[in-house]
Amino acid sequence: MNKNKYMLGVDIGTTSTKAILYCNSGEIILEENNGYELHTPDNNTAELDPDDIFQAVIMSIGNIMSISKINPKDLTFISFSSAMHSVIAMDDNDKPITRCITWADNRSSKWANKIKDELDGHNIYLRTGTPIHPMSPLSKITWLENDMLSIAKKTKKYIGIKEYIFLMLFNKYIVDYSIASCMGMLNLKTLTWDEAALKVANINENKLSQIVPTTEVITGCNRQFLDKLGILPSTQFVIGASDGVLSNLGLNAVKEGEIAITIGTSGAIRTTDSEPKVDLEERIFCYALTEKHWIIGGPVNNGGVVLNWLKDLLYTDDINLSRNSELNPYKELTKIASTVRPGANGLLFHPFLAGERAPLWNANVRGSFFGLTLHHEKKHLIRAVLEGVIFNLYSVYEALSEVIDVSSTSIKASGGFVQSELWRQILSDMFDLDVIVPENRESSCLGACLLGLYALNKIESLDISKDIIGANKYTPNQSNVAEYRKLIPIFKSVSKVLEFEYDKIADYQASLK
After folding, report:
1. What is the pLDDT along the chain (513 residues), one digit of tens a residue?
2. Cβ–Cβ under 8 Å, residues 396 and 300
3. What angle do CA 16, 19, 21 make, to 5 degrees?
4. How open is the CA angle 331-337-343, to the nearest 5 degrees?
5. Domains and CATH numbers, the chain
6. Strand 210-212, strand 174-176: pairing
7. C-alpha closest to that of 191 among 214, 157, 165, 207
8. For residues 294 and 288, is the Cβ–Cβ distance under 8 A?
9. How far, in Å, CA of 442 to CA of 282, rounded?
10. Are strands 16-23 and 192-193 parallel, antiparallel or unpaired?
11. For 319-377, where are the alpha helices, taking DSSP H only?
């Protein structure tokens, strides 16, 4: 590639859309971020306005092009990353009937349970690689088709947010293998819609988009948007993949057995294999990066959101948290936690404040402190909360290790949590592995661009990002490792023992509304 050529990665997230302009060497030229409101009128609903997201995409690309002042001829391509598991019902006029129902929406819980218990959910999972859960489009569409008949009758297509963006830009209903593979309706072996899953959802394949590779390249953007985008009609768009699998690519964790962990509001642990793999106990997912690269792992609901809850709960003068800073409160909390020995003096925190996906896949699990005594102080609670998030991720790691050979000696880490030195060290100690933190934390945008280079035959292999990103390394403290090895079995046992009690307390809480 010419020195003056550029590539643009766009990551469509649950709270904002990010766009990053890179030069051909991988150096960041400019970043742009535009947010939107997540509508949560009750505990079960989590929706976005599709047009708010589309405008954020247009603004993010347009501002990058305008501010950078690069020649549009020098923009080689735009490649996309997107959040998973969203559903929008579209009518015959290609207009949204619903908002964008996000992964965090739990209104299909009843149908998720019914699919799992009565409608051959286990075998559907084994074929599709998506655990049966309210997050999945399979559960959401089944709910809409059965309980929201006024919507179902008007629906021409069920699509996700990236499909909506490409529909607006190109007038095409297309979905990439990656997004399709996390819908719970794609047969991973045939890469076609799974007939049994469609039957459960009460739809046929005509109600879903055409499936294309993640390397699909499209040109001819609708002219009405060209000026706002600041691009040429010939600009190449790469459809890209989901944010999770692209994060692995951006972190250079695409060799078999390499591990990546991301903790933002939620979190995930993922590894890579050359073919799809599933878990007989249904604890992990399997999603496509390309036809030859499969990302296998588990997502958790409770990442940074737990620390945010703690910050709000303990926002007192004696902790001296600044109301004028978004950073200081978190820094102060981790500073306090660092004064406590690993294991928080025998206090464990189960961080299930928002239900949980992997490894429990139960929307009814609830958070709790275990081992609390009169000797525990506020500082122990803070340390236990930070450790609880990592304990749960380690539980997913153990499930993952039973399915695939996880041979890595290090973890590639990204997300907001990497800003905390203490959290990075806890991760290293808990896993007894080195933690590698890249200088470029927006791994999904970088992954989208690497996939774009691969799609356009600019690189021969996806294993290239080591030449593009720098990194910092953290090593485990063996005395801390020993403490965590004593506590991990207790953490896991408590959550298993409380399986039925979680359902009972969730039912009680629901009765209070």
Report:
1. 445 799 999 999 999 999 999 998 889 999 999 999 999 999 899 999 999 999 999 999 999 999 999 999 999 999 999 999 999 999 999 999 999 999 999 999 999 999 999 999 999 999 999 999 999 999 999 999 999 999 999 999 999 999 999 999 999 999 999 999 999 999 999 999 999 999 999 999 999 999 999 999 999 999 999 999 999 999 999 999 999 999 999 998 998 889 999 998 899 999 999 999 999 999 999 999 999 999 999 999 999 999 999 988 886 544 454 444 444 678 889 999 999 999 999 999 999 999 999 999 998 999 999 999 999 999 999 999 999 999 999 999 999 999 998 878 899 999 888 889 999 999 999 999 999 998 766 789 999 999 999 999 999 999 865 544 457 899 999 999 999 999 999 999 999 999 999 999 999 998 997
2. yes
3. 165
4. 145
5. 300-438+472-511 (3.30.420.40)
6. parallel
7. 214
8. yes
9. 30
10. unpaired
11. 328-337
Whether the Cβ atoms of residue 451 and residue 240 lie closer than 8 Å to each other? yes
Cβ(1)–Cβ(459) under 8 Å? no
Q: Kind and range of the H or E element at 485?
A: helix 478-497
Task: Identify residue 501 by its one-letter amino acid code.
Answer: E
Query: Which tokens belong to 495?
Result: 């959550």
24 within 8 A of 74, measured Cβ to Cβ: no
Instruction: State yes or no: cis peptide before 359, omega within 30 of 0.
Output: yes
Query: Which residues have a Cβ under 8 Å from the Cβ of 509 and sit 6 or more positions away?
Result: none
Rounded to 10 degrees, the C-alpha dihedral 116/117/121/126 comes to 90
DSSP 87: B
CA 389 – CA 397 distance, rounded (Å): 13
Whether the CB-CB separation of 263 and 394 falls below 8 Å is answered with: no
What does each C-alpha distance from 235 to 12, 73, 338 come to in angstroms? 19, 8, 50
Q: In whole angstroms, how far apart are CA 334 and each of 25, 343, 381, 420, 421? A: 36, 15, 11, 7, 8
Q: Which among 294, 291, 255 has a CA at the least distance from the CA of 407?
A: 255
Provide the pairing of β-strand 100-101 with 47-48: antiparallel
Length, in residues, of the chain: 513
